[in-house]
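Running this now, will post back.
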Amino acid sequence: MMVTKQGKTLHLRLTREVDTVMRKFISRRGDVRTIILGMFEKMDLGSVDLPKMEFEHRRGSPKATTILNFPHKYHLSLKRLSQERECSMNALVNGGIKAYTSVLKRGRRERQSI
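Update: finished.
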């Protein structure tokens, strides 16, 4: 992990399911950082379901699927929560993104039905 003036560079490994869902939202709502920071502001990462972290291992596949500059306050919160929940920071982010995009989908469906 690299420290910059703006925060820490976090290398995330997203599950295929989470990456696919998140990228659908990115095409409509901006970049990866916007989705992930929105997740931190709206979701309780202390209670989100943690996904089973399975990855396809292929020769030459990247070690991280997403790299972003993370504000210090979110990094510290993520680190503390992952220690409390005895899981990886990647698992927390994957669970949070999955929960957050579910909330966004529900909100979109409700607006369309009005």
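Residues 13 and 64 are 5 Å apart (CA to CA). More later if anyone needs it.
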